[in-house]
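Long-time lurker, first post.

We've been arguing in lab meeting about whether zinc ion would sit comfortably in this protein at all. Half the group thinks yes, half thinks no, and nobody has a model to point at. So I'm putting the question to the forum: if I give you the sequence and the SMILES, can you give me back a predicted structure of the complex? Inputs are below. Any interpretation is welcome too.
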Amino acid sequence: MSAPSASMKRTAFLRRKAYLLNALSGCCRKCQSERDLQFDCITPRGHAAHGSGLYARMLFYVREFEVGNLQLLCARCHRQKTIEDRRALGWIRDAAFLEEPAPAASQAPAQASLSTASDWEAFCARHRGTLGT
Ligand SMILES: [Zn+2]
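Top reply:
Settle the argument with this. Predicted structure of the protein with zinc ion, as tokens:
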């Protein structure tokens, strides 16, 4: 069995993305915004679980959707939820997090657990731009 080609992956990515956007009503679950939408795992699953590359990540989101653990959030609500998740887990370092610039995606390690605050930032960086705006 040969690996799917880049164009097959791209097509599958776009189909899954459209499917999920439609299934999740195409707007932010919290504020109903239709702008800057991002997929969010209701219960955080961890950076390593997302897979590498858009194709693998969208497959991951489809699986999360099938078990009822996926929602759409706008970038603002997603950021707020991430802070709340961090706080709930005791990883919040300082209240200035909201004002911090987003870490660059290129800083994200290929594989990481979510055991430290910097892991969380890498995780968030990977989430950002999921929908390829
Ligand atoms: Zn929102």
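For your lab meeting: Confidence is low (pLDDT under 50) at residues 94-100, 105-114. The chain is about 40% helix and 10% strand. Whichever side wins, do check it experimentally.
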